[in-house]
Task: inverse folding
């Protein structure tokens, strides 16, 4: 199963829900890395819009995108993170 998840291009982080984890994104060619609470502060790490439902997929890529969008409020700057998060949004299992 781990090999399949790696192939699909996302890292499931359901086990970290409610815990601290590092997220990172690139903004104007600078890599920003911060420790955040998975699931906290606007459902960081949940794939998809808003926080509807209780069994959402949580991935590292969605966490990175969520942090980028929260910090920059700029979807264009977060485009790379969004592309990486898309696979988890489609294929990641719900927590």
Result:
């Amino acid at each position: 199963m781990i090999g399949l998840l790696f192939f699909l291009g996302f890292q499931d982080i359901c086990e970290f829900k409610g815990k601290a984890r590092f997220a990172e994104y690139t903004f104007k060619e600078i890599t920003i890395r911060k420790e955040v609470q998975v699931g906290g502060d606007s459902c960081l790490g949940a794939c998809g819009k808003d926080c509807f439902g209780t069994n959402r997929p949580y991935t590292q890529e969605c966490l990175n995108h969520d942090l980028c969008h929260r910090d920059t409020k700029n979807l264009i700057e977060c485009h790379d993170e969004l592309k990486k998060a898309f696979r988890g949004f489609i294929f990641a299992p719900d927590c």
Notes: Residues 2-91 form one domain. The radius of gyration is 12 Å. Confidence is low (pLDDT under 50) at residues 1-6.
